[in-house]
Amino acid sequence: MNVHAQFLGQSERVLAGKVAIVTGSTSGIGLGIARKLAEAGADVVLNGLGDANQIERTCTELAEHSGTRISYNGANLMVSADARALVEQTIAAFGRVDILVNNAGIQHVSPVESFPEDKWDAILALNLSAAFHAIKAAYGPMKAAGWGRIVNIASAHGLVASPFKSAYVAAKHGIVGLTKTIALEGAEHGITCNAICPGYVWTPLVENQIDDTARARNISREQVIRDVLLAAQPNKRFADVDELGALTVFLCSPAGQGMTGTALPVDGGWTAH
């Protein structure tokens, strides 16, 4: 079967035998990606915040649905040692790490003159530095295996800017630059590294952004959605987490092996302006 047909055939389980880590995957985009990776046959380590009982239910349901091994690691990615330990503990438990999806992130919306410095530090730590520390820990084992897939969830804000999001835009631009560097370093070792740059995706994070932006601009929620969030997206719709999950599977599949160092917009035409 050719690579294209193999990818399209979901029953082929193109990622069977692979082990994936998805950070920030107890809800939203990360959980959507984790679900698609598991459906493609990968064992998946979830990571993120949330109610312990709900996380346990999510792991159980995902394992039953996919037939793969699903576990949870509560590493605090704000702490560099914990970010490295997430990878090390995955290797200890599963014997390998093949796929690393750096998705964890937080947001804060504020004019720069009043932007809280602790928020700046936290956003840079989680949205950018945590990805570096996890990649550093995974890179050696991937290089030794001669195969690895790193997918960084950046943002359209990794390609363009918006006001009142200085820390987030800086971190996401940094993720795109980090992606290109790791792609170059891994090119001869079977390791690819790509960034996915979503526009607005309907998640709890976007829900919070709507309220924060409404307060910052003193306008209604409906105005935020129509005139701020989706103003630059020609298709005027929020993306779905399953779309990002499917793209991640593609990048990790045999069909995506020639793609590395890319920043792929999934933004309804936002960055086409």
Query: Termini separation (Å)?
Result: 39 Å
Which strand order spans the largest sheet, edge to edge or round the barrel? Answer: 3-2-1-4-5-6-7
What percent strand? 5-15%
Rg, rounded, reads 18 Å
Q: Helix count, per DSSP? A: 9
> What's the pLDDT, averaged over the residues?
94
Tally of discrete structural domains? 2
SS-based structural class? alpha/beta
For CATH, the homologous superfamily of the largest domain is named as: NAD(P)-binding Rossmann-like Domain
Order of helices and strands: HEHEHEHEHEHEHHHE
CATH architecture of the largest domain: 3-Layer(aba) Sandwich
The count of strands amounts to 7
CATH top level label of the largest domain: Alpha Beta
> What's the overall geometry?
globular
* Residue runs with pLDDT of under 50 for 5 or more positions: 1-11
Predict the CATH topology of the largest domain.
Answer: Rossmann fold
Helix content bin: 40-55%
Biggest sheet character: 7 strands, parallel
Could you please describe the fold and organization of this structure?
The protein is α/β, with parallel strands linked by helices. The chain has 2 domains: 3-199 and 240-265, Rossmann fold; 202-238, no CATH class. Helix content is 49%, strand content 12%. The protein has helices at residues 3-8, 28-39, 52-66, 80-94, 117-145, 166-186, 204-217, 221-229, 241-252; strands at 19-22, 43-46, 70-72, 99-102, 148-153, 191-198, 263-266. It has a 7-stranded parallel beta sheet with strand order 3-2-1-4-5-6-7, with helices on both faces.
